[in-house]
Amino acid sequence: MNSKKIIGRIIKHVRKNKGFTQQELADGLDTDKPYISRLEAGKINLTVDYLDRIIKTLETNHAEFFNTKHII
């Protein structure tokens, strides 16, 4: 599995565990729901800065975000 897919799965996992819909995450990032769908499917390259925005929007921190071994 490539890095984009792994990060996408982590985003989806954390988003769901935090109780966010794709639309709510999209609104928090000032983007649209199809972008979040492509992101979670591993079809988008992310910058570290954008990943930081996602983590902040999901009201989590880096340690919690990357502590998702069981989904990979």
Could you describe the 3D structure shown?
The protein is an all-alpha fold and 72 residues long. The chain has a single domain, classed as Orthogonal Bundle (434 Repressor (Amino-terminal Domain)), CATH 1.10.260.40. 64% of the residues lie in helices and 0% in strands. It has five helices and no strands. The chain has helices spanning 3-17, 22-29, 33-40, 48-57, 62-66. Helix 2 crosses helix 3. The longest helix is centred in the first third of the chain and has 15 residues, at 3-17. The radius of gyration is 11 Å and the shape is globular. The mean pLDDT is 94.
Protein traits:
72 residues; mainly alpha; 434 Repressor (Amino-terminal Domain); 5 helices; 64% helix; globular
Write the layout of secondary structure elements.
Elements: H1 3-17, H2 22-29, H3 33-40, H4 48-57, H5 62-66
Helix pairs in contact: 2-3
What is this structure, in a nutshell?
With 72 residues, the protein is mostly helical. The protein has 5 helices and no strands. Helix 2 packs across helix 3 (33-40).
Average predicted local confidence, pLDDT: 94
Please tell me how large the radius of gyration is: 11 Å
Per the CATH scheme, the topology name is 434 Repressor (Amino-terminal Domain)
The CATH first-level class comes to Mainly Alpha
**CATH superfamily caption:** lambda repressor-like DNA-binding domains
Distance between the termini: 9 Å
Tell me the major beta sheet: none
Summed up, the helix count is 5
Whole-number tally of structural domains? 1
Shape: globular
CATH architecture: Orthogonal Bundle
User: Helical percent range?
Assistant: 55-70%
Could you state the order of secondary-structure elements as H and E?
A: HHHHH
Low-confidence stretches: none
Measured by DSSP, the beta-strand proportion falls in: under 5%
